[in-house]
């Protein structure tokens, strides 16, 4: 996972998978990036994301609830968009 400021927004580039094998590292790295960014709005770039499990969805929701700044998910594949639609995450992000 990489992150970088982009026009006043922190962009967090997601890896190919977020699942039980890497969710702890994802949460730790994301929280560190968000702490460094302060109140800067942030977005997830999901161009590389091919798979997200229920623990990955939970991690995204947990991060969303922790912040008061706008959050977006961009460059979502059709498969991931379908998962977001079925779970209601398309209304949250």
List keywords for this structure.
two-stranded parallel sheet; alpha/beta; globular; 93 residues; four-stranded mixed β-sheet; single chain
What general form does the structure show?
Answer: globular
Number of strands: 6
Percent strand equals: 15-25%
Average predicted confidence as pLDDT: 91
Instruction: Provide the structure class.
Output: alpha/beta
| Strand order, sheet with most strands | 1-2-4-6
- The helix/strand series, from N terminus to C terminus, equals EEEHEEHEHH
Number of helical segments?
A: 4
Low-confidence stretches: none
Major beta sheet summary: 4 strands, mixed
Distance between the termini: 19 Å
**Roughly how much helix do the residues carry, as a percent range?**
40-55%
- CA radius of gyration is 12 Å
